[in-house]
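Note to self: keep these together.
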Amino acid sequence: MNLETKKDLAVYYFTKDLFTDVDGIKIVDEFPKQLLELPTISIEASTLDASQLLQMGDTERIIIRTWYIDIFAANKAQRDEYAYRILSALEGKICVFDYDEGFPPQALTQLGCLQPEQIRLEIIRILPELVDKLYYRSSISFTADYNPT
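Structure:
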């Protein structure tokens, strides 16, 4: 599995580990496509920006990635609680492990860390007349660059 896939898995397991104490929450590694079960948190990788370092003769590139974590909740309090929990956790680093060694990720070799930056929380308003079942939604986006250990 390539390094970019391992970074995606790291963000997924990072988010999943934040909610081990919450019963009934569904965490998915894609934007929900089926009937929405509340609460659900989805993780989706987006833009990958590979910029060349500004050093003469150096061909190494820095790769910056953007992720979106969408929260679908039953009420405002639940949405805000989950969003603030994620925001607080993004203050630290996200460890990337060698998931080729097995699943679930326990005692795996750490390859490096993602350092979240440009963290943004957006509340998405859902109009009741547009949906059959009212839910509350927010989206957290962040960019991160990878630092190998």
